[in-house]
Amino acid sequence: MQMVFIEGVPGSGKSTMAERLCANAASLGIDVQWYLEESPDHPLRMKAAHTANSQGRFAEECLATWARFVDQCKGQKTVHIVEGIAFQSTVRFMMEMQETGIEQYYRRFEAVVACLNPKMVYLRPPDVAHHSREICAMRGEDWSHKVASYLEHTRYSTCHELTGISGMHQFWTDYATLCDDLLLATRIPTRAIDCAYGEWDRHMAEAAMFLKMDAISNEARATPHLETSVS
Questions:
Q1: What is the pLDDT of residues 198-229, one digit of tens each?
Q2: How far apart are CA 149 and CA 165, in angstroms?
Q3: Residue 80, strand partner residues
Q4: What percent of the chain has pLDDT over 90?
Q5: Which residues, given as ranges, of the chain have pLDDT below 70?
Q6: pTM for the full predicted model
Q7: Which of 117, 175, 205, 212 is deepest in the core (most CB within 10 A)?
Q8: Euclidean distance between CA atoms 206 and 210, whole angstroms
Q9: Starting from the edge strand earliest in sequence, which strands make up the sheet with 79-83, in order?
């Protein structure tokens, strides 16, 4: 395994999970690199794809970006931990824009990354609307209204008449359902974790067991050691 995707709705703990997995892997002597979702120099930021959206080429530009990244990673012993890009910055945007062909895009994405033996940890609150309300309470009114306002003006929310804070809760519920549907037929080994705010130790234990970090460590010991890098 050379690539780990961390996915989930906002506030589900993607960054916390990625950071802890990275630290755990490094402690086991695994060469690992974590790609923080909001990093300005992220190699998978879909800037070109968003620019191309007006010409209807968003999906193709995303796939081209993934292909370039995969080419860079081939042959490396590094474990790449990628958060929020497999769904959050690609599939979610296609949903916002009412793009067709999301399922077809995702199957093509799976084919592009297959050579890196990917696995996915999917942080899934049992009740997404309730989770969204908890995150709003934790992050405050300014954050809540900013996100709600952005989502309210997307094509998806306009089409489904989703407005205000309640519309935001419904948007995230619909987004989680879309991700659920894509994963029903996924070719990427996936562990869905029922997540709850503050239960990071349980989340981590489930993810570590699924990813079998000890096995990766044993494999790493049989090869020349590479310097660990975290971004």
A1: 788 999 999 989 998 766 655 544 444 333 33
A2: 8
A3: 3, 33
A4: 63
A5: 1, 40-41, 46-56, 214-231
A6: 0.87
A7: 175
A8: 6
A9: 32-35, 79-83, 3-8, 118-124, 190-194
Residue corresponding to tokens 């900013």: 146
**140: which 2 tokens?**
């405050």
- 217, 201, 81, 22 alpha-carbon torsion, rounded to 10°: -60
Helix, coil or strand: residue 78: coil
Q: What is the pLDDT, as a whole number, of residue 57?
A: 83
Strands annotated E in the chain: 3-8, 32-35, 79-83, 118-124, 190-194
Output the furthest CA–CA distance in the chain (Å, rounded).
57
Task: Return the closest-CA partner of residue 89 out of 139, 48, 136, 135.
Answer: 48
